[in-house]
Amino acid sequence: MLFLLITTLSFSQITVSGNVTDNNGEPIAGANVIVKGTSKGYFRLQWKLPN
Hints:
Blueprint: H1 2-10
Protein name: TonB-dependent receptor
């Protein structure tokens, strides 16, 4: 039972969203976002194309 709980917790996911900008509010091209203490991750790119 404990193993099942640990396995379930290790696969839990959260979504964090936001923008990486400089002090003037301009987007920073090529910025990297990391979570301290982690070495594995998953990412998704999403953007809106102008009409």
